[in-house]
Amino acid sequence: MDYLSHNIAINLKRIRKAKGMSLDVVAEQTGVSKSMLATIEKGDANPSIGVLGKIMSGLRIDLQDLTQAPQKDAYLVDIEKLVPTKDVKGQYHVWTCFPIADNRSVEIYRIDIEPGGVYESGSHGERTKEYIAMLQGTLFIKLEDGIYEVEKEQFFRFESDQPHVYFNTGTETIRFMSFFVVY
Question: Is the whole-model pTM more than 0.70?
Answer without folding.
Answer: no
